[in-house]
Amino acid sequence: MAYLFEMYSLSASYGPNLVLQDVNFKVNENDFIGVIGPNGGGKTTLLRVILGLLKPVTGKMVFNGDLLNGNSIGYLPQMSTGDINYPVTVTDIILSGLMIRKGIISRMSASDKKKADTVIDELGLSGMSESTLNELSGGQMQRVFLGRAIIGDPKLLLLDEPGNFVDTTFENDFYEKLKDLNSRMAILMVSHDVGTISAHIKSFACVNRSLHYHPSHEITNEDLQAYGCPIQVIAHGIIPHTVLKIHK
Amino acid sequence: MEASIFQYSFIIKGLLGAIFASITAGLAGTYVVSKRMVFLSGGITHASFGGIGIGYFLGINPVLGAAVFGILSALGVEYLSVKQRIREDSAIGILWAFGMAIGIIFIYLTPGYTPNLMSYLFGSILTVSRADIIALGIMSAILILYFGIFYRTILYISFDEVFARTYSSYVDIFKYITTSLIALTIVLNIRMAGVVLVISLLTIPPNIAMLFTRVYFKIVIWSVLAGFVGTATGYAISYYAGIPVGATIIFTLVVLWVMVKGITQLLMKISKKRTLAT
Predict the structure, then answer these.
(1) Which of B31, B17, B69, B43 is nearest to B189 (CA)?
(2) CA B26 – CA B21 distance, rounded (Å)
(3) B50 vs A99, A154, B103, B114, B128, CA distance in Å?
(4) How far is A122 from chain B (nearest CA, A)?
(5) Phi and psi at residue A212, in whole multiples of 5°?
(6) Is A142 helix (H, G, I), strand (E, B) or coil?
(7) Residue A210, strand partner residues
(8) Which residues of B touch A81 (CB under 8 A)?
(9) Do B150 and A51 touch (CB under 8 A)?
């Protein structure tokens, strides 16, 4: 299986605060990795380092050649970044996902717009292409931002707390959609909400300054003290549960 | 009564002034209103009054002084709020009053002739010179080119700056350039509408446009049209009634806004009734 990127003994910090320490991590094609850990543990920082928004203090990252071309990483940030009352249409927001290969003087071609229409249909947003965000529901908004992340056909999709701004009905649709996308691209999904993380995730990375990788679903009868703090999962119904091995 | 040459030039000056004011205010205003920078723009306007005062005191063109003050205060607020973590609204409030204070102090310190303060505070078409009109014309061309060429880049940075940073390293440069151009637009329109009223010239037209469209470039086009109707009508009324032009323009624009709001709401009610009836 071809790797997409690999980081070696990487550390990152904000000023004097070391947020990630000695992280070794590898992502392969078609991986679906859940990045979990406590708040402030460094999950978002990990995404920022991969996106190149934060320079690591030590260590290095090696990208597969394909991943260095424009648009090969799609990014769905936490909800709070865009102004939902801004007068910009769904089509235009989705098209902004192509900006990385457009440069500052940018015209969208007919084929770009056609591509945006395809994404809009695929994400079940038909008929809303000329709407603005304040006319949409939380789940629809989230799909618009997902559309922006995937319009460039990325090899790697980074999702930051996608469960944050959506109710459970939409959440199920959304995770089904991610399963489809996973056949085309690797997905790295950050979530602090371990209880409701998608069942489609294939492996886990626990981040709390250091990173522990769990290559598959593992179930043990051990304590649930996954990362230093006791966690109890309470759930009703027939939900697939995943319990991770204790870090050694 | 035959129109004299004086009247002709007065009408042409007013017409050109109205065209250029509505183009510059429409383009800058749509950005300001969309990005919720109305208070910042108000701060820039009042801070630039400090430049007017210093301009008089030093005997240089007051508009030049205002332009320097306006741009520096705009960049200053952007910089302070990003780098120094100062509360932006407090910074603007301080700058707002400080600029006015500097302006008044220096105008009173200027020996001999004291200019008509009222004309700067509330606008006066009589003080609008040929050079002012030419400057506004050049500003219109610059803004049309700037927003035309970089439309998507400007739109996307102003909509979602955090995401824009993931693909562009030009985010800060564009923010600084756009804010400077807005400061210049405001300063050049001060002669027409005055320090106190100019911010409405930027904010009312986009709000009229937003009553019937939510698409950015359509808001720009409708703002320019609404701005032109408001400024030209206001100018004419001010000329015949002999009242200050800035106040008349703003009054006309607000009346226009109320009228359009009334009409759109009426149309909405009618279409609702129709859909209920069918």
Answers:
(1) B17
(2) 8
(3) 41, 52, 4, 15, 19
(4) 22
(5) -115, 125
(6) helix
(7) A208
(8) 160-163
(9) no
Domain boundaries, chain B: 5-198
3-state secondary structure of A135: helix
Q: What is the dihedral of CA A120, A108, A132, A121, to 10 degrees?
A: -10
In CATH terms, the superfamily for domain B5-198 is ABC transporter involved in vitamin B12 uptake, BtuC (1.10.3470.10)
Q: Model confidence over B96-153: pLDDT tens digits?
A: 999 999 999 998 888 876 667 777 888 776 778 888 899 999 999 999 999 999 999 9
Closest among B124, B126, B248, B141 to B190, alpha carbons compared: B124
Residues of B in contact with A146 (CB under 8 A): none
**Which residue does chain A place closest to B33, by CA atoms?**
A86
Q: In chain A, which residues have their Cβ closer than 8 Å to the Cβ of B164?
A: 99
Query: What tokens does B64 get?
Result: 């030049």
Spatial distance between the Cα atoms of A144 and A129, rounded to a whole number of angstroms? 10
Across A66-75, B19-28, B76-85, B193-202, the highest mean pLDDT is recorded for B19-28
Q: pLDDT of chain A along its 248 residues, tens only?
A: 678 888 888 898 888 888 888 888 888 888 888 888 878 888 888 988 888 888 899 988 888 766 665 558 899 887 667 788 899 999 999 999 998 878 788 788 899 999 999 999 998 899 999 999 999 888 888 889 999 999 988 989 999 887 666 666 667 778 888 888 999 999 998 886 655 555 677 777 888 878 878 776 553 434 334 444 334 444 444 555 566 666 66
Ordered domains of chain A (ranges, CATH): 3-214 (3.40.50.300)
> Under a CB-based contact definition with an 8 Å cutoff, are residues B191 and B132 in contact?
yes
Distance of CA A84 to the CA centre of its chain: 21
From B155, B162, B210, residue closest to A88, measured CB to CB: B155
By Cβ distance, the residue of B166, B170, B213 closest to A53 is: B166
CA A112/CA A152 separation, integer angstroms: 10
What was the ipTM of the complex prediction? 0.85
Which of B34, B151, B160 would best serve as a mutation to test chain A binding (most A beta carbons within 10 A)? Answer: B160
Q: What are phi and psi for residue A23, nearest 5 degrees?
A: -90, 125
